Amino acid sequence: MATLTILNYPDPRLHTVAKPVVDVNAAIKQLIEDMAETMYAAPGVGLAATQVDHHVQLIVIDTTKEQNNLQVFINPKIIAKNGLTEYEEGCLSVPGVYELVTRAETVKVEALDKNGKKFILEADGLLAICIQHEMDHLLGKVFVEYLSPLKRNRIRKKLVKQAREVERNAY
Ligand code: NI
Q1: According to CATH, what is the number of the domain 12-169?
Q2: Ligand 1 center to residue 101 CA distance, Å?
């Protein structure tokens, strides 16, 4: 297992559209393990392959405090959604930023599990929000894109400045 580097907004690679996983092979299984380790170490409740610069339709989620319920979604599709809810979201690719985003309250998602077996899940609460947030990543969309251009620009500037400081400290 290995911890992977998480891309930070506004890295243009975060806007790559992920391709479907054709075969749940050993390389994908390794990527799942590495992504889970990366998410748990961060710590975060969800991570999309896009965020670790692998552009395949794969997400890992664990909304438990105990980090003992890893959920893997390969080639996820939302087949039904209902209601609207607002939640203050954060993202491992946008460190230190939390903003309200409106999403569907419940979703019904169809995906493959870590063994390539198809399943259908009805989700609500934080899990439903997380699924939608991570699926956006696979489309190349970061949650700050739901905010006003003014707010988004402020966040972009702040993160660019942060990244420069990290770079400077590296010398
Ligand atoms: Ni995110």
Answers
A1: 3.90.45.10
A2: 12
- pTM for the model stands at 0.96
CB 8 within 8 A of CB 158: no
Q: How far is the CA of 137 from the centre of ligand 1 (A)?
A: 7
- Spatial distance between the Cα atoms of 124 and 105, rounded to a whole number of angstroms: 6
| 37 counts as catalytic | no
Tens of pLDDT along the chain (171 residues) come to 789 999 999 999 999 999 999 999 999 999 999 999 999 999 999 999 999 999 999 999 999 999 999 999 999 999 999 999 999 999 999 999 999 999 999 999 999 999 999 999 999 999 999 999 999 999 999 999 999 999 999 999 999 998 888 888 876
Q: Which of 37, 122, 134, 167 is catalytic?
A: 134
For ligand 1, the distance from its centroid to the CA atom of residue 143, given in whole angstroms, is 7
Q: 87 by DSSP, 3-state: which? A: strand
For the chain, which residues make up each domain, given as ranges?
Answer: 12-169
Terminal-residue alpha carbon distance, the chain: 29
